[in-house]
Amino acid sequence: MPAEGGDVLFRVAVDVGGTFTDCLVLEESTGEVLQFKAPTTPSDPSIGLMDALTKAATAYELTVEGFAAQIGLLIHGTTLATNTLIKKDGAKTGMVTTRDFADVIEIRRGYKNVRTSMY
């Protein structure tokens, strides 16, 4: 176990889902990967994220602050927006755009009418 304030770095990936928040931690010095899971709190997804990080910190005998200080890379993903669209239970939302930028959503997906065009 790394000491508080040590130079061991972690790579952490957190996925906040509709039911659970999953956390994977790679300890760079050993290559060991540990997995942690916490319930997602729909009203405040940050609670599940912090609970998962707290479990990880505890496993490494660190405080959350000490653990966070040793994270060299944090990857965050979520399916909350996708789940909201699928279940159709989110707030009514619209998109306002200026002329000539209505295709922003398609461009984000990599779609272009002329593939070689920058615009």
Automatic annotation (TrEMBL):
GO biological process: glutathione metabolic process
Domain Hydantoinase/oxoprolinase N-terminal residue range list: 11-110
Molecular functions per Gene Ontology: 5-oxoprolinase (ATP-hydrolyzing) activity
GO cellular component: cytosol
Entry-linked PANTHER family: 5-OXOPROLINASE RELATED, HYPOTHETICAL 5-OXOPROLINASE (EUROFUNG)-RELATED
Protein name, as recorded: Hydantoinase/oxoprolinase N-terminal domain-containing protein
